[in-house]
């Protein structure tokens, strides 16, 4: 699958120390209202288990899947270190229906680039709907064709094609450790209408990374990054801005 399994297997042990989690806070804020005692939650593409750990601490009965056995191994160690328990299964996003019985979960979350490397989103949408209970929630967090901050940077460097193109979606090779992995980048509204609308009602569309880079203060003065972050938080769920962040967020409910 586009080299993702091999790339993340090779990077698994070092992953948590290499990637800055500046975008994690807004993503956690999006799914935290749906955590609770006894909630059956699936983290599809759980990586090293950060969202799984939060779900367990929030009272959920949590399961994590990932295509990479190496990432699952690190997730298992991270959970054990925190004295937390979750079921971990090696599975692709599109294979959820073959992995779990119908209506197994109340909430599914899938964060960061899991969806971007998963292949056909329609397959994942259908599989998610199948394993969710009636009116179950699906929360997605994924890379877009480029945030406003990134596009402004391209303009200042004369990269007009990157700055102005690909609003509906594009394919980009992303370096993951020593591996180049093909990522399909999605406009949130187009992604929903094309692949998820048949199975889900869209409740909210949000964005992360509208005005600031991933590593925030390391690439701009801390005070400026903080001020821009406050502005971004205030408009995170404003209709029409979902495609202008580096990451898009969809909050969906099964029909």
Description:
- The chain has 255 residues and is an alpha/beta fold.
- It has one domain: Rossmann fold (3-Layer(aba) Sandwich).
- The strands form two sheets. The protein has a seven-stranded mixed beta sheet, with helices on both faces.
- The model has no long low-confidence stretch (mean pLDDT 88).
Essential attributes:
255 residues; alpha/beta; Rossmann fold; two-stranded antiparallel sheet; 9 strands
Q: Main sheet: which strands, in order across?
A: 3-2-1-4-5-9-8
Structural class: alpha/beta
How many β-strand stretches? 9
Order of helices and strands: HHEHEHEHEHEHHEEHEHE
User: How many DSSP helices?
Assistant: 10
CATH topology: Rossmann fold
Q: Which CATH architecture would you pick?
A: 3-Layer(aba) Sandwich
Give the helices and strands, then pairings.
Blueprint: H1 4-18, H2 24-31, E1 40-44, H3 50-57, E2 61-66, H4 69-81, E3 87-90, H5 96-99, E4 105-110, H6 121-131, E5 132-143, H7 148-156, H8 160-164, E6 169-176, E7 179-186, H9 188-196, E8 200-208, H10 222-234, E9 247-254
Parallel strand pairs: 1-2, 1-4, 2-3, 4-5
Antiparallel strand pairs: 5-9, 6-7, 8-9
Q: What is the compact description of this entry?
A:
This protein is α/β, with parallel strands linked by helices and 255 residues long. The protein has helices at 4-18, 24-31, 50-57, 69-81, 96-99, 121-131, 148-156, 160-164, 188-196, 222-234; strands at residues 40-44, 61-66, 87-90, 105-110, 132-143, 169-176, 179-186, 200-208, 247-254. The protein has a single domain, classed as Rossmann fold (3-Layer(aba) Sandwich), CATH 3.40.50.150.
